[in-house]
Structures are given as structure tokens and as C-alpha cells.
Amino acid sequence: MSTPARVVIVGGGVAGLATALAAAPAPVLLLDRGRGGETAASTLAQGGIAAPMAVGDTPEAHARDTCVAGSHHNDCTAVEALTRGAVEAVEWLQRQGVAFDRDGDGRLQLGREGGHDRPRIVHAGGDATGAKLMEALVAAARVAPHIERHAGVDVDGLVLRDGRVCGVRATDAGGNHEALHGRAVVLATGGIGGMFAQTSNPADADGGGLALALAAGADARDLEFVQFHPTALALPGVHCLPLVTEALRGAGARLLDEAGGSLMDGVHPLADLAPRDIVARRVWRACRDGGAWLDAQRVGAAFPTRFPTVFRACMDHGIDPRVQPIPVAPAAHFHMGGIAVDADGRSSLPGLHAVGEVACNGVHGANRLASNSLLEGVVFGRRLGRLLRTLPGSGNDRGRFALVRRKPSLDAPRLAGLRELMMRAMGPVREGEALRAARDECEALAGHGWQGGLARTMVGAALRRRQSLGAHFRID
Ligand code: SIN
Fold first, then answer.
1. Which of the 8 DSSP states describes residue 302?
2. Peptide bond before 25: cis, by omega within 30 degrees of 0?
3. Predicted pLDDT of residue 114
4. Superfamily of domain 7-192+336-402, CATH level 4
5. What biological processes does GO assign it (predicted)?
């Protein structure tokens, strides 16, 4: 069989869709676990897109905030590409049909979120930016003649010829396998929030793409850096928690302890808008000491229109945020680490590319700045898409064949145990002895399912980084 001219993109979130759209006219096969992006973390993103659009704002100022949040662990080339590409990314999204929120004079409304030194965030549909982006990009991909979509499939294997990735193994809901070849493979499979007992991600953000790349021998980096969002809606015993957007704190909401005192006064000069890791640790400790609440009552009657997603989630659980504080807890939110790639998404394995949260080009350093993640998906997705247009075929249909498969999944009880373990040992506050014990437990679980192996690799990275940096905070 001859190698098809198409590229195979795995993942139907913002990064995968932006890559697929930008690859035109190169033929693309887009593989998605969901039917139309509904299982992608992008759909849940409430924060907006950071872009230096205001008069007086610059890519340099945005880059400065990105690197301060990232504890200067960031890759400068990637940060420059991100912040210089931000305004163009917003304009491209508008051309795809995204209607960003505007003020009474028709100007783009710019909000402020933690770690930004000025208002810089565009939103769509209030706190429904991710959903609005996905609506537009899914619709654009549906009518794009160069994109063929296969929905409802899981990719659990990589096909190699002479060490070069040239296809994937896709498995459908009925357990049927199919090998799908392409001149390049892109993983855009999202993050690892699902590995933790509490996450703001959908369950599909389970680390499966990262585990597959590691099984094939791709290099990874910065795996210890996991960002916890300080304010998920606290629902005991629930794995995937609704997010309570940071934009509420930008609009004046305040974090309170059990006694109604401010949680953040005196902790950081930016108080409630301090960098996310600092707020997450404070909320983590408060939850241990009796609980944490977000008082957003000052948003008042405008709540349902300004923050419709949070409003619905609260009301669904019997909390009216217009008149009562919202119980909150930290939740695994974003993985700064991932498959090591350059700014064009090339991994260390020939033929394999990665983009979005599963990838790590170093742009976020040790801690991602608010509203830089959808932006990352669009900027680096479009960049990778442009590269894919020009990639030559491997021309090697007969080389030594290999199929690298991810191990089977852990069974439900073991997976639940692993998630609790990750939350305890790899949460916002870490400590050497707990990490060592967790590594041994993960080692034992690795024989039972791929999540154990991935967790062991992440815990190992956390153990090797002995000093605190960004989201990796060690009390020992
Ligand atoms: C939020 O809305 O608080 C999350 C935004 C982000 O993760 O960038």
C-alpha cells in the first residue's frame, strides 16, 4: 500500500482543529473520541484568550507576565511566538465566526485575570469562550473539503516504519481496530487532569496521548508541573468538577475562609488576583482547615448573563451565587509538561508531532498564565498546520514495521485509588517522603494498566526536582 498524502491528527479540541484547518489544502484525517468536540477540555474553558489588544499593551508586556507566572522556566522563543501571534490569532478566530464580547461602543471588551498586569482577556459568551470557539471551529472543520473526520474512536497505538511514525491504530466503541496511515501524525489529545481525584477537566483528559508517546520512546519534559485551579465548585466525591472562573475574581469576587475572613489579604500584593499556584495553595490549606468560599455576590443581578456557565453549575447544585458564597476547592487544571516539542510541534520521534496541552514546547514554564491555553492551541496549531502543508511523504512503505500499543487501562477501583494517590502526593503541596511512597505504589500499579506507568513517570519527575518552582511546590 502506498503512503497516503494525508496527515493524521488525533484530538478534536481547539489545538487539533486549528492544526487541521491551517493544514489546508493538505488532506487531513481528524480522529476524535467525541462526536463534535464535546469531550474536549477546550469546550469547558471559561477564561478567554489573552492578547495585547489594548492601547499601550504590547507583546513584550504579555511575554513578561507569561514568564513571571512561569517562574522564568519558560522557553523564550515559544513565548515570543505566542505573544506576537496573539492578536492575529484573535483576528483569525473572528474570521472563523467567533463573536467576542463587545462593550456598548462596539469595542472588544477586555477582562483581567490573575497574573496579568492589565485588562487583556477577550471572552465570548461571557464565561463560555471555549464552547463558542469550539462551535465555530467544529463548524468550519465540517465544511472544510480537506478534512475527513472519524468520531468516536480512541487511538491506542502508533504505527512505525524503520522508526518513523507513519500511522495510528484506532479502536472504536465496539473494540474494532483499524490501522490508519498518514505522512505525519499529530497528537492533540489534551492533558492529564483525569489522573487526579478532582479535576476541572473532562474525564477524557486522561493522559492517554502522552502515555502512548512515552511508550513509543518520545522525549517528554517538565512532567512535574501540574497547575491546580484554585476555584472549582467543591462537590465532595465528584471527579470532574465545574470550574468557577478566575474572571469572577477579576470582577471583584473575594476568597473567604470558614469564618468569613479574607483568604488572600497579606498573602500576595495582588491578593485575590495573585498567580494561580499561590492562590491554589492557600485554598488547599483552607479546605483542610474547614473550607474555602468565593464571595461573588457583588456581581449581583448580572450574574446569569455575565457568567452563565458558572451560574448554571451553581444553581444545578442548589447554590445561588447572587446571594450566597460559592464553596470552592482546588482541582487539577492544566499540565505544563508533556511531549517535548519545538515551536513547530516536532517531537523527538520522526513523523510524530504534538500540539496543545499534550505537548510541551516550554511556553508556559513552570506555571501557565491565565487565558494562555486556548491561545496556545490556536497559535501553535496554526503554525504546525502550515508546516504540515509542506512536509514531504516518508516514501517508506516497506521498512521494518512496528506497532507500539498503550497497555490496557487500569480497572475502575485501581484507577480511583491512583487518582486519590495523585491528588495527595502530586497535589498543590508536595513532600519527598509522600512522593517516594507514591512512586512505589505507582510502580506496583504499572503492571496493571498504563495509568500506573504514566503516574510513576510523573512522580519520578517531581522527585528529581528537589526545589520548589512555580506549580511544583515542595515543603521539604
Ligand atoms: C478560568 O477561567 O479561571 C480558567 C482560565 C484558564 O485556565 O486560563
1. G
2. yes
3. 82
4. FAD/NAD(P)-binding domain (3.50.50.60)
5. 'de novo' NAD+ biosynthetic process from L-aspartate
Contact predicate 476/431, CB 8 Å: yes
Q: How far apart are CA 306 and CA 308, in angstroms?
A: 6
Question: Given this model, what pLDDT does residue 463 score?
Answer: 98
Largest CA distance in the chain: 70
- Ligand 1 binding pocket includes 32 (Cβ within 6 Å): no
Residue 276 designated active-site: yes
User: What would the grid cell of residue 45 be?
Assistant: 474553558
Closest CA to 428 of 258, 272, 224, 221: 224
H-state helical runs in 216-298: 247-250, 276-288
Q: Which residue among 228, 363, 371 has the greatest number of ligand 1 atoms within 8 angstroms of its CB, and so is best to mutate?
A: 371
388 lines ligand 1 (CB under 6 A): no
Q: Which residue has the cell 465532595?
A: 236
Cell, residue 400: 521494518
Q: Is 457 in the pocket of ligand 1 (CB under 6 A)?
A: no
Is domain 408-476 annotated with CATH 1.20.950.20?
no
Pick the catalytic residue from 112, 276, 281, 419: 276
Length of the chain: 476
Question: Model-level pTM greater than 0.85?
Answer: yes
> DSSP character for 205?
-
Domain ranges within the chain, ordered by starting residue: 7-192+336-402, 227-333, 408-476
Measured between its terminal Cα atoms, the distance across the chain in Å is 57
